[in-house]
Amino acid sequence: KDGGKGRLLSWADLLCFNFHTKKVWIFPGSEEARFGSTVQQHQAGGRQWLLVGAPFQTSGRKRTGDVFRCPLDNGTSEGCSRLHLGNLSLDSVSQRAEEMRLGLTLTSDPRDSSFVTCGPLWSHECGSSLYSTGICSRVSRTFRPTGTIAPALQRCETFMDIIIVLDGSNSIYPWSEVQNFLINILHKFFMGPGQTQVGVVQYGSSVVQEFRLGEHRTVEEVVVAARSIRQRGGEETRTALGMEVARSQGFGRGGRPGARKVMIVITDGESHDSAQLPQAVARSNRDNITTYAIAVVLGSYNRRGMDPEAFLEEIRLIASDPDQEHCFKVTDESALKDIVDALGERIFSLEAGASPRGRGFGLQMAQAGFSAHLVKDGVLLGAVGANDWNGAVLKDTKDGKVVPPRSSYEDEFPEELKNHGAYLGYSVGSLISSDGSQLYTAGAPRFNHTGKVIVFTLADSGNLTVLKALLGEQIGSYFGSQLLSMDVDGDGRSDVLLVAAPMYYSQGWERGKVYVYGVTPELALVLQGALEASDGAQNARLGSSMAAIGDMNGDGFQELVVGAPLEDDHQGAVYVFYGRGRTIQRRHRQQRLPAAGFSAGLRYFGQSVHGVLDVNGDGLVDLAVGALGAAAIIWSRGVVRVQAGLLFQPEKVDVSNKDCRRGGKAAACMAVTVCLSLSSRTSATATVGADVWYSLAFDEGRSPPRAVLEEPDQQQLSRLFLQTGSQSCRHHAFSVQETSDYGHPITVVLETGLQDPDRGPVLDPDQPSVLRAALPFWNGCDQEDACVPDLVLHAGTDLLDVGQFCSSGSVWSVCGHRSAAEGGAGVVEARRRKVAVLARLENRGENAYAAALRVSTSSNLLFSGLVLKDQSDVEMECFSESRAAGELSCNVSAPFLKPSAQVSFRLEFELRPALLLDHIQVVMATSSEGRDRNPEDNICYIFLPLRYQADLLFTRDPNPLRFQIQAGGPAPFSWSQGGADSCHDFNLTYQIRNLGTLPVHGLVFRAEIWAVTRGGNQLVEMLDLGLDQEEEEGRPSGASSFLPNGPAAEDLSHLSQLNRSNGASVAAQCGLHLPASTQLEVRLRGRLLCPALLAVGFRALEVMTTASIRMDASSPAFLQEDLAVREIILEIRKEGDYINPVWIILGSSLGGLLLLALLVLALWKIGFFRRQRPEEEEEQPVANGKAAEELS
């Protein structure tokens, strides 16, 4: 039983996709032949085949490569046979087929059951050079080659038709020297198909063709024929006739189209038909024949004693221009051997324009067929060696080959980077745009060391236009070495372009990466992410091969297979990724197929992948994977779904109807019917069967459960055999025990699975294997489908209104002049941090299921907590997604609130110090699943204006300030503010402490100095009003000042104090902000104005200073008193010459004398003078003695 569940878990973890990890066909082959380098599933002749490339396979002694075919419909992995395609050949080409790597590229064409295989290192000779241009073979459905494809093959620079015109007249002597010259020059020619062919014409009085062009195909054959040529003789030298025969008959009958025509004329004297010579030369020039003329000058002329100048002029006429390049002269026949090398070099320099020497390679080393891709009108081939290894892309169509000019690539592959060897054409592909047109793709993995991919069009004219380019991000990652476009959703348009970088270095290893680019309708390539190997992979080289396969799981989207042949220490692995929508899922349920799971001997498993055929007939594609010396077919498995249903009798639990006893207790007995059916996601026609198990559980995770299965169903799995198209049902009895929780329905869990995960189909991983159903309790209402509750909500706050606040004995400014409007405002006490909403919810109707409360508050309230009051069995919980959101949701007594139930609760909110509004607002609304009988009492709306108690401690320095000025000094200077006219500076300090828990805004501080006399003299100057907080509202404003023309004499001696009753003030004020529990210090700096103080008359004078605080009219806060005033006295004294009146002096003197006389009289009366004297006499000796002692 437990083992069955264990198998389910392990199977579900492994089989995210449906390739069989245990049923695999492995086709063995030769490791030396690299059997398995490429694989293609192929259908031809009504049979299914696996084509396997073996690019190192030998053909005789030559290692040409070949392709094997392995039958897939005979039920075994045996019987692979070789196709013997290594004998590829082209007419008129001197080929080298060894090491051509046939089978390195393999592409199947389902349109006509043919396939194309290429040998990119196929080479051919051109003179002394060997060019690897590459070749491909198209093979028919009968596995016979039907044609060769070689778009990079070009005419050799040695592709020449050469006719040697020999003067065989009697004057030539000795003939053996001419024969030796002929043999030597023939050895200089590269003869063979596609190269040079030679004919010989001999003339004298008549003309004879010794052998024609193409009559002998090798140098050896031509040399043998030349040795048998005998001198024909003749009395005349008819050079014009010899040239004409060579032109018309020699080139006309054996010449090849496109071959360079060369004529070599050897003669030792003037022609006897010199009149016809200009016409013969003109005809040769018209036929583009290059003519070399060799004059044996001193032979017959020396023997005859003749002047050779006319002969040399004739030779210059025969030779093509310029003469110095085409005209030779020797002293005699034996000297002909000296010009052999020079003549050979000049002949082959004719094709210097086609030679790679000095200009780099064009297509000579193209290696066309390194990659191949079938397109609508032919085959697209990559040629990595073209253009000095920058690479190129070629196309072969039924109308011929398409070769873009080298200049087509210059913008994307600039000349200055050609030494990097971009390898364009390492991979080729195509994609279908939104308008249905086919665009081509090609990768250049070595471009600028990081790699590049281009998207382009290629016209039949050879015009290549690059539309988009993608660049790699890491040096050496081989970005673009594999390309694949996918139509994931099957709408006929390419959805993604996959670009592999198999050597991408990550986490210290060459793990590889596959980039996923989305293809937009505008043809923008948007990077969607990257596919990577599993976390444990090391040198994986993920992306070495890629293939799109059909829908494997029945969701309608194509899947992707990616090879990682170096994973697991070069054993290799294959990854399968889901398609979904219009992209590839990067991490969701990827399946990894390691080689170690199939065969211990596999190596480099995943170096090639392909999948288009359903081999085992289950309606799904089976996967072909290539390895070193082996190829594998991994079988797919059908995907099924198990549909489950539960039917309860009765449909709801009625706990009041206890009709049986279980465990000695009354219980409600019920039954459940389990019905299962099977459907196939991947096969719409075939009948599929599977053994299925299922299990039932009640109240999952709850102990003890409220419902229990009857014996014997409690401890075992139930098993059924299901077939698509049918349903099977079974009944199970269970009982429900007494419970206090009949609000929550009973959860019933039905789990299903396959009995044997290793056989038959697999379960759809997207289909849940667990069905959860809720078995509800009867709602207890008159109507089964609905209850009619009647929820009533009452709410208020715990804030005192102004009337209540004042009636509690508080003496504050708000109590002295409150208006009717203010009477209903709530008072926020100074030390209050929270506001509570006191509410009661009751149900006066039927059960209220899913009763809930929604609360919305003003922004100055933050939800703090919920407190339930009284002893109630009603449960309640509140939650808020964000404290600052102002929204709160509460669930009340889930699942329902009983009739007549009520709950009192307290919602606590913190006041936001940073946002003190002049009101609070709370909107509460209750609801339930039923239709409320009286919905109008389901909402409470609280809007309360607020007044904030500002508990401030306003103090000042209690000590008065005293100043003293010296009178009678030098005359004051002219009046000016500050400077020499001022004297003592002073500072007045005031402290304001906020004793509350909330900040105070809108506080106005005002300072006044009553220092302006009625005569207009300003005695004190206010310099500055400073704060200990740097805030904008703390800046002084509204300062007033008196600036009279100058001090004037004024008598103030009758005044003891300047104040508001007898003077004017200078003032300043500022707005203040006090955070909670902080103190602010205000500093007033002033200065005594000495010129004014010296000008007025006084001896002592007090100057009154006042400071007050009040709340701004717009502030909702209030103080204990409307205007709190603190006073500080400035005491000023003046010293120096002060003339008192005479009567004051006389009166004072007489008064003093009279007071002294009265004092003496009083002392005498009491006997003071009489008692003192004897005492002094008695003490005198002591005093004297003491004095004496002190003196001694």
UniProtKB/TrEMBL annotation:
It is found in: Membrane. GO terms for molecular function: integrin binding; metal ion binding. The keyword Lipid metabolism does not apply. It is a single-pass type I membrane protein. Keywords: Calcium, Cell adhesion, Disulfide bond, Glycoprotein, Integrin, Membrane, Metal-binding, Receptor, Repeat, Signal, Transmembrane, Transmembrane helix. GO terms for biological process: cell adhesion mediated by integrin; cell-cell adhesion; cell-matrix adhesion; integrin-mediated signaling pathway. FG-GAP repeats lie at residues 21-79, 465-526, 528-586, 591-651. One of its GO terms (cellular component) is integrin complex. Belongs to the integrin alpha chain family. This is Integrin, alpha 11b. It comes from Tetraodon nigroviridis.
